[in-house]
Design brief:
The protein is mainly α. The chain is 69% helix and 4% strand. The chain has twelve helices and four strands; from the N terminus they run H-H-H-H-H-E-H-E-E-E-H-H-H-H-H-H. A four-stranded mixed sheet has the order 1-2-4-3. The longest helix has 44 residues. The radius of gyration is 23 Å and the shape is globular.
C-alpha cells in the first residue's frame, strides 16, 4: 500500500507538469494571459501540496513497520516538506515557456524556478514542521524510552521547536525577490524615518532590493524594524507614493504581537488534539494511518487561520497608510505595483490581498474620493509603466548588514 501511494505521487508530479505544458496557448496574449497563468500555477501548487500530504507522506509512513505513531508522523512531516521540491521543480520546468510569453525574457529560468519553490515552501513548510513537532511530542508522552533515548527524543523536540520559530523569518527572507542593499535616496529615507516617528513605529532601517534577475515590484516588512522596497517599484513612484507604501509596511510591525499570540493559541489547541489522537491509537480506537492523516489535518488547520488574519491585517495597514499619508498616493502606488507586475487586469485577488479594484474602491471610500478615482488611479499606473522603468542593473555596492542573504543565480 505504501509503495502504491508513492508511485501515485510520482505519477501526479508528471501529470501536473503535463497539465501545465499543454495549457491553452491563450497565455500568449501578453498581460491578459498572465492572470490566467497565475491562477493555474496557484491551483497546481496547492494540488502538489495536497498530493504530498495525501500520497507521499502517508506512503512512507506505511512503509515504516514496527515504529511508533510519533515516529511515523515525524518522518511523514519531513517527507511532506521535501516532496514540495520535486513537484514544484517539475511544475516550473513546464510553466516557464508560458511565463516567458506573458512576461518576456526579463526573468531568468533559475529565478522563476526559485520563486515557485519558495511559493510551495511558504505554504508547506509550516505544516510540515508542525506535523513533525506533533510526532516528537507524541513520542515523548506515549513511549517508554531508556534514559539515553529519552534524552535524544527530548533534544529532537527542542530542535523542532526552534525550527518552528526560525522558519518564519527564513521564509520571509527567501520571499525577497533579490539582494538587499542600502537605500540610495537619503532625503526619502529621512522622510520615512520621520513618518515612522509620527506613526509611533520606529523604522530602524530602510533597504533597497535589487531585482535585476527577476524584476518585481513590491515592499516588505522585515524583522527588527526594517522595511525593504524593490528597485523596480522605486523607479516608478514619487515621494508621496513611496511614503504611503512605507506607512503600509510600518503598520504591519504593530500587528506582529497579535500574530504571535494567535500562533501560540492555535498551536496549543492543535497539539492537544494531536495528543488525544495518539491516545486513541494507543488504546486501539483509531488506526495508525488515520492518526497520521489527522496530524496533517490538524497542522494545516493551525496554519489556515493565519491566512485569514493576514487578509484583515492588509485592510488595517491600508487604513493606517491612508490616515497618515493619504488615500490617493496609496491608491496610485498599489495600482503601479499591479501594473509593473503585469496584474493590472487581474480581476481576482490573492489568498491575502483583495482584488485591485476592490482594494482601490475601499480606499477611495475611506478617503471620500469620487467614483472615478479608481479608474483614474489604474489609468495613471498604466501610463506610468507603459515604458519599462529604468532600474539599476548593477550589483549592489553595499550589502545590508544582517540580511543574511547571498546573491541568487
Amino acid at each position: 500500500m505504501g509503495w502504491a501511494l508513492i508511485l501515485l505521487w510520482l505519477a501526479w508530479t508528471g501529470v501536473c507538469a503535463c497539465i501545465c505544458s499543454r495549457a491553452r496557448p491563450s497565455y500568449a496574449a501578453g498581460s491578459a494571459g498572465w492572470p490566467r497563468l497565475r491562477k493555474l500555477l496557484r491551483r497546481l501548487t496547492l494540488m502538489n501540496l495536497v498530493a504530498g500530504a495525501c500520497l507521499a507522506a502517508p506512503g512512507v509512513a506505511l512503509l515504516l513497520g514496527g515504529v511508533s505513531l510519533g515516529t511515523r508522523v515525524l518522518v511523514a512531516g519531513a517527507v511532506f516538506g521535501l516532496s514540495v521540491l520535486p513537484s514544484q521543480a517539475a511544475l516550473s520546468a513546464a510553466a516557464y515557456p508560458h511565463f516567458r510569453l506573458v512576461r518576456g525574457a526579463d526573468w531568468l529560468r533559475s529565478a522563476f524556478t526559485f520563486r515557485l519553490l519558495v511559493a510551495g515552501w511558504a505554504l508547506g513548510l509550516p505544516v510540515a514542521v508542525t506535523a513533525m513537532l506533533f510526532g516528537a511530542v507524541q513520542n515523548l508522552l506515549f513511549i517508554r524510552l531508556q534514559p539515553a533515548d529519552h534524552a535524544l527524543t527530548l533534544a529532537v523536540t527542542v530542535l523542532l521547536c526552534l525550527l518552528w520559530v526560525v522558519q518564519w523569518p527564513v521564509l520571509r527572507a527567501l520571499s525577497l525577490p533579490g539582494t538587499a542593499a542600502e537605500f540610495p535616496r537619503a532625503e526619502w529615507k529621512s522622510a520615512a524615518v520621520s513618518l515612522g516617528k509620527r506613526m509611533d513605529v520606529p523604522l530602524n532601517d530602510l533597504l533597497l532590493i535589487h531585482t535585476h534577475r527577476a524584476p518585481t515590484a513590491g515592499a516588505f516588512a522585515l524583522g527588527r524594524g526594517r522595511v525593504a522596497i524593490t528597485d523596480f517599484l522605486l523607479s516608478a513612484i514619487d515621494e508621496d507614493e513611496f511614503l504611503a507604501v512605507v506607512a503600509h509596511e510600518l503598520h504591519h510591525f504593530r500587528q506582529r504581537s497579535r500574530t504571535v499570540a494567535l500562533i501560540l493559541a492555535l498551536m496549543a489547541g492543535a497539539a492537544l488534539l494531536a495528543v488525544i489522537a495518539a491516545l486513541f491509537v494507543a488504546r486501539g480506537v483509531l488506526p495508525a494511518w488515520a492518526a497520521v492523516v489527522l496530524s496533517f489535518a490538524l497542522a494545516a488547520s493551525a496554519v489556515a487561520p493565519l491566512v485569514r488574519r493576514r487578509q484583515r491585517y492588509e485592510d488595517e495597514a491600508d487604513d493606517a497608510a491612508a490616515l497618515h499619508v493619504g488615500s490617493w498616493p496609496l491608491m496610485t502606488a498599489i495600482a503601479k505595483v499591479h501594473a509593473l507586475n503585469g496584474r493590472a487586469g487581474d480581476a481576482a485577488g490573492s489568498t491575502i490581498h483583495r482584488s485591485l479594484r476592490d482594494r482601490l474602491r475601499r480606499l477611495a471610500s475611506c478617503g471620500g474620493l469620487d467614483g472615478d478615482a479608481v479608474q483614474r488611479a489604474i489609468s495613471l499606473a498604466k501610463e506610468t509603466v507603459a515604458e519599462p522603468p529604468q532600474v539599476c542593473l548593477t550589483r549592489p555596492l553595499v550589502r545590508a548588514q544582517g540580511d543574511g542573504q547571498k546573491p541568487r543565480p
